[in-house]
From TrEMBL:
Catalyzed reactions per annotation: DNA(n) + a 2'-deoxyribonucleoside 5'-triphosphate = DNA(n+1) + diphosphate
EC number: 2.7.7.7
Listed GO biological process terms: base-excision repair, gap-filling; DNA replication proofreading; leading strand elongation; mitotic cell cycle; nucleotide-excision repair, DNA gap filling
InterPro entries assigned to the protein according to its UniProt record, in alphabetical order: EF_Hand_1_Ca_BS (IPR018247), POL2 (IPR029703)
Name the UniProt record assigns to this protein: DNA polymerase epsilon catalytic subunit
GO cellular component: epsilon DNA polymerase complex
Principal cellular location given in the protein's record: nucleus
Lineage: Eukaryota, Sar, Stramenopiles, Oomycota, Saprolegniomycetes
Family: Belongs to the DNA polymerase type-B family.
Pfam annotation, one family: zf_DPOE_2
Originating organism: Aphanomyces astaci
Keywords: 4Fe-4S, DNA replication, DNA-binding, DNA-directed DNA polymerase, Iron, Iron-sulfur, Metal-binding, Nucleotidyltransferase, Nucleus, Transferase, Zinc, Zinc-finger
Subcellular localization(s) per the UniProt record: Nucleus
Cofactor section: [4Fe-4S] cluster
Domain of life per record: Eukaryota
């Protein structure tokens, strides 16, 4: 009935970490790390990580989340859902567009050259997610996540 151009699309970035569970009241919720109020406020004036922690609290009971657990969970999500699929892309023939059948072949059966499957939208999407997480890691002072993201991006 209405054009898709007329629908509202939020222009800000988004990265949802599912199933964050409060250890105090057992509230389970999904947290959008880019849009959650208070998480991406300007923290440049703060010197201590303890002051950064105050924004990571349960909305029901105000109990603080375990930041080390959240950071390790983010690294796990990066490795399993984003980095691994990116690294396991198939070799595809440029001529016939079929995937490579053997790991040792340098040419396809049709004598076409093989190259990585460059699904442009997928590569751009993963790059955008990596940039978001690197920014989040720097902003929230997640050292392990920041080191992981820097290694994956270079």
């Amino acid at each position: 009935e209405f054009s898709t151009e007329a629908e509202f699309v939020n222009p800000s970035k988004s990265f949802v970490l599912p199933d964050i569970i409060c250890t105090q009241c057992n509230l389970c919720r999904h947290v959008d790390l880019c849009r959650e109020p208070g998480l991406m406020d300007d923290l440049s004036a703060l010197d201590d990580r303890d002051e950064v922690v105050q924004s990571w609290q349960c909305p029901r009971c105000t109990h603080l989340y375990d930041l080390d657990m959240l950071e390790h969970r983010l690294v796990h999500v990066v490795h399993t859902q984003h980095s691994l699929p990116y690294q396991l892309r198939e070799l595809v023939c440029k001529r016939c567009n079929l995937p490579n059948e053997s790991q040792l072949n340098t040419l396809c059966g049709c004598t076409g050259t093989l190259s990585l499957d460059e699904n442009a939208s997928n590569v751009v999407e993963i790059d955008e997610i990596f940039r978001i997480l690197l920014h989040l890691a720097k902003h929230q002072r997640f050292g392990y996540l920041q080191e992981t993201m820097e290694r994956l991006m270079h």
